[in-house]
């Protein structure tokens, strides 16, 4: 039995035909940019996240770049980025001409509050907390810190769709929250898509302009913008997908709980989790063990595919190299291993993963 990390060809037949029907209907209407599907998806996002405004866009990386531009972050500004994240978070800072300041992480893989003050200088204009693995940063605490320092907050919620803290959805705490609907995320399109959330009407208007060539009405270009609009077809597919999302989240939560129960007594592994388990959307299930490389190999030999999110810190990558030392981070990336968790993983497959991991440590 081969157990894939995530196999999107396993979408149930019913979902596949609903998506095919959507494609046929949209082909019939002939509207391939903007239109009702986009407006409908944005309304659904607002409803689901309880956000005042949601602006769908091309992908999560563009969402982050547009967020920085909307807050006028650019040359001469510094932006705090956690040293462990998907590379998009730091790319966009460089792309707008600002300077990234790498912040330490804790053993939950998230921004380490104890170290944050070290990263602050008056040039810091924004901070990009990342809800890595779908575990939320303690946003109440972060917003307090940011208000004190007069720093703008852009949440990288690319991995945290469906995660909440005290009733508030990820991405609705900061000035702007960015989402990704890349196919492997909890809510995935059949291609590239993303969104920005904000509670500020003026910011929402500016973001709409920035993703559409700086125009509010056609040919009236009042800002330097770009084309970062969502593909209408993807909005259409996402409208189909989002209806099933709560059901998928239930399966994810169930699988995460099964793993937690199964590994509770294995002293050789730690489960990477945030302080508040409720603020986890079960995007990735990440273990930590000093035997990581051997365990990964053993699982692979037994037909189980695993991944590492991520094998390197940003500070270890050529474009973002710094001399700063991140002791916890360096240890962390050597010990983490993501094991399969998704709505299309079968119960028997999860049993096999659990049994194989237990066997390894016996
Ligand atoms: C996926 C991801 C992004 C980028 O989203 P895309 O839609 O792939 O551009 C940004 N940040 C994090 C943490 C991600 O996981």
Set down the secondary structure blueprint.
Layout: H1 13-29, H2 36-49, E1 53-57, H3 60-70, E2 78-82, H4 88-95, E3 99-103, H5 113-119, E4 124-127, H6 139-149, E5 152-156, E6 164-165, E7 168-169, E8 176-180, E9 194-198, H7 201-210, H8 232-263, E10 270-271, E11 285-288, H9 292-301, H10 327-335, E12 336-339, H11 347-361
Parallel strand pairs: 2-3, 2-4, 4-5, 5-8
Antiparallel strand pairs: 1-9, 6-7, 8-9, 10-11, 11-12
Pyridoxal-5'-phosphate binds at residues 59-61, 85-86, 88-89, 130, 156, 158-159, 180, 182, 194.
Kindly describe this structure:
The chain has 362 residues and is of the alpha/beta class. It contains 11 helices and 12 strands. The mean pLDDT is 97. The site of pyridoxal-5'-phosphate has 14 residues, from helix 3 and helix 4.
N-to-C SSE series?
A: HHEHEHEHEHEEEEEHHEEHHEH
Distance between the termini: 22 Å
Strand content: 5-15%
Indicate the radius of gyration in whole angstroms. 21 Å
Strand order of the largest sheet: 1-9-8-5-4-2-3
Bound ligands? pyridoxal-5'-phosphate
Shape: globular
The major pleated sheet works out as: 7 strands, mixed
Structural class comes to: alpha/beta
- Please tell me the overall pLDDT: 97
Number of helices, where a helix is a run of at least 4 consecutive DSSP H or I residues: 11
- Measured as a percent range, the helix fraction is 25-40%
In terms of per-residue confidence, which ranges show pLDDT below 50 for 5 or more consecutive residues? none
Number of strands: 12
């Amino acid at each position: 039995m081969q157990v894939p990390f995530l196999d999107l060809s396993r979408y149930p037949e019913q979902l596949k035909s609903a998506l095919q029907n959507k494609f046929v209907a949209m082909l019939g209407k002939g509207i391939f940019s903007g239109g009702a599907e986009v407006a409908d998806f944005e309304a659904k996002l607002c409803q689901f996240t309880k956000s005042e405004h949601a602006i769908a866009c091309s992908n999560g990386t563009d969402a982050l770049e547009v967020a920085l531009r909307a807050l006028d972050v650019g040359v001469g500004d510094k932006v705090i980025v956690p040293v462990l994240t998907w590379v998009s978070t730091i790319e966009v800072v460089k792309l707008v001409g600002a300077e990234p300041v790498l912040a330490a992480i804790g053993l939950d893989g998230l921004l380490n509050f104890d170290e944050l003050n070290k990263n602050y200088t008056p040039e810091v204009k924004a901070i990009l907390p990342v809800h890595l693995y779908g575990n939320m940063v303690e946003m109440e605490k972060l917003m307090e810190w940011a208000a004190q320092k007069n720093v703008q907050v852009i949440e990288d919620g690319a991995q945290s769709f469906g995660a909440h803290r005290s009733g508030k959805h990820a991405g609705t705490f900061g000035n702007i929250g960015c989402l990704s609907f890349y196919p492997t995320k909890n809510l995935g399109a059949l291609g590239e898509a993303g969104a920005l959330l904000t509670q500020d009407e003026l910011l929402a208007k500016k973001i709409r302009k920035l993703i559409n060539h700086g125009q509010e009405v056609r040919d009236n270009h009042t800002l330097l913008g770009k084309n970062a609009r969502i593909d209408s077809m993807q909005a259409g597919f996402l409208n189909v997908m989002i209806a099933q999302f709560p059901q998928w989240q239930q399966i994810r939560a169930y699988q995460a709980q099964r793993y937690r129960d199964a590994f509770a007594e294995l002293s050789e592994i730690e489960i990477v989790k945030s302080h508040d388990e409720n603020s986890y959307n079960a995007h990735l299930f990440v273990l930590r063990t000093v035997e990581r490389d051997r365990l990964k190999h053993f699982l692979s030999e037994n037909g189980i595919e695993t991944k590492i999110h991520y094998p390197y810190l940003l500070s270890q990558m050529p474009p973002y190299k710094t001399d700063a030392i991140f002791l916890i981070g360096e240890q962390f990336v050597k010990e983490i291993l993501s094991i399969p968790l998704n709505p299309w993983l079968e119960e028997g497959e999860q049993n096999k993963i659990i049994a194989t991991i237990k066997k390894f440590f016996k």
